[in-house]
Amino acid sequence: MSSGGGQQSQALTKPTFSEVQASALVESVFGLKVSKIKPLPSYDDQNFHVCILRTKDTTDGPNEYVLKISNSESSKTPDLIEVQSHIIIFLRAAGFPTASMCRTKGDNLTSLISVDSGSEIKSYLVRLLTYLPGRPIAEIPSSPQLLYEIGRVAAKLDKTLEKFHHPKLSSLHRENFIWNLKNVPLLEKYLYALGQNRNREIVEQVVQLFKDEVMTKLSQFRECINHGDLNDHNILIESSKSAFGDAVYQVSGILDFDDMSYGYYVFEVAITIMYMMIESKTPIQVGGHVLAGFESVVPLTPVERGALFLLVCSRFCQSLVLAAYSCQLYPENKEYLMITAKTGWKHLQQMFDMGQKAVEEIWFETAKSYESGISM
Length: 376
Known about the structure:
Elements: H1 19-30, E1 34-40, E2 46-52, E3 64-69, H2 78-93, E4 101-102, E5 111-116, E6 121-130, E7 135-136, H3 144-160, H4 198-214, E8 223-226, E9 235-241, E10 247-254, E11 261-264, H5 265-277, H6 283-295, H7 302-329, H8 334-337, H9 341-354, H10 356-371
Antiparallel strand pairs: 1-2, 2-3, 3-6, 4-6, 5-6, 7-9, 8-11, 9-10
Helix pairs in contact: 3-5, 3-6, 4-7, 5-6, 5-7, 6-10, 7-9
């Protein structure tokens, strides 16, 4: 949900292009005429859904795109954005439902646009990707089959990226990137955004437990490249009918690679579990189905499994604290920023009240039931 390699989202870095300006960008940078354009919700970048006008030169190819304008802070790390763009292309070639990248008139994947705001000149990196079909998972009641499938796709994605090579790959080592799970202790400087209450007490406890019990075990986790943001708005699905007439869901789109960084396999599954809990009516049950799907590709080690509960709690804390902080910077974007907060605090509190042992028992028993072919 966030982007930018810096330690924090900074005020006034989010682009504020109008629809007219965004249309002009599509034409001047990518050589495509726009017939319709509308803004899409976003965290600290700016996205537009673009429909293009067919001309003699553009009779082939897609006619729906997403224009991505990176915030001015992220735009200072072009190497990182280049690697992320090449990962999207690599995953598509490997059979994943990622977007295609549209090249600029100069045959590049990105273009740096400078804008004079009066007081200063700001630069923004611009990309154009094909628009992917499907509905966000957030709009569909999750079933065990769908949760298992999402866990499987998450593991497969990380596993596939073991084979990805790029001369600038080291840019994914984002040391102080606030959304990397290993940087949970950095949340302490944003806690003031919560005020003084029970929520803040829980976050403080989670951060302390993270320092004591996770930081000391990082060297025992298996490293990989993480997508890092497989939330319920970044995974699109389409349904088809099974032989028995009921709906079977497939992942039809994976969006938003801006939070990619080096992490660990167990980070990816923890992040995915947390986001799949958000809209669920039975949030505690979710983890076992996602875990079973993930472990069908990458079985976790006992040390990784032992950290899972705390990592899920930690991701809740990241999302909830940074949303509260960002709301102070961008009050006009409050509705989008607070999506997780609607149920997130309640879910985190429930996990904390139940305790690690009870939650793990539910997750691990559910995951085990898949081995015998009986999903719970």
